[in-house]
Write a structure and sequence with these properties.
Blueprint lengths: L3 E3 L14 E4 L4 E3 L7 E6 L6 H17 L4 E7 L3 H11 L5 E3 L4 H5 L3 E3 L8 E2 L2 E5 L5 E6 L9 H11 L1
Parallel strand pairs: 4-5, 5-6
Antiparallel strand pairs: 1-7, 2-3, 2-6, 4-9, 7-8, 9-10
């Protein structure tokens, strides 16, 4: 089995963030453009209930809560079903929506697909984090070379704090 990370068209700083509407863990629909005027952290993770994904979700949750501002929203995105995301959210007391990209349209639009994750033919989100600025452009972009690497949370939140 080989791992394939397709990153040829990853969005970059300054690009307009591709809009999307996805189902949240509670089966409500969440649309990125509905947050226009606010900054939004997009936290892509490969799979719920894996160790690094738990660390990523919980670290972003804790640091976001510590900001003490409602000017920055967080959306977690994986290819998991809403039911899995809901169980993952509840088990880890995550305060932000976890969205299901089961058709892989958003991970493709952002250029963060990772093929053959644990099973040949299984495509997931490459671990990555983007900050969508209030004007809808990408202000911060980070991706992992492999799914075992965690985001640089300090750099992400330093960028957020510098922009406030």
């Amino acid at each position: 089995m080989s791992l394939i990370f397709l990153m040829g068209n990853m969005v970059e700083i300054g690009d307009v963030a591709p809009d999307f509407t996805l189902k949240a863990q509670d089966k409500s629909e969440v649309t990125l453009s509905s947050f226009a005027g606010s900054r939004v952290i997009l936290s892509f993770y490969p799979a719920a209930f894996t160790g690094v994904c738990k660390n990523q979700a919980c670290s972003i949750n804790e640091q976001h809560s510590a900001l003490g501002t409602t000017d920055v929203q967080v959306l977690g995105i994986s290819v998991d079903a809403p039911f899995s995301n809901n169980a993952f959210r509840e088990a880890n007391q995550i305060n932000y929506p976890l969205l299901s990209d089961v058709h892989r349209e958003v991970i493709s639009a952002y250029g963060v697909t990772f093929e053959n994750f644990a099973i040949d033919g299984y495509t997931v989100a490459q671990r990555s984090v983007f900050l969508v600025e209030a004007d809808g452009t990408i202000g911060y972009a980070w991706y992992a070379d492999n799914p075992g690497i965690e985001p640089d949370y300090s750099a992400l939140f330093a960028h957020i704090n510098d922009g406030n």
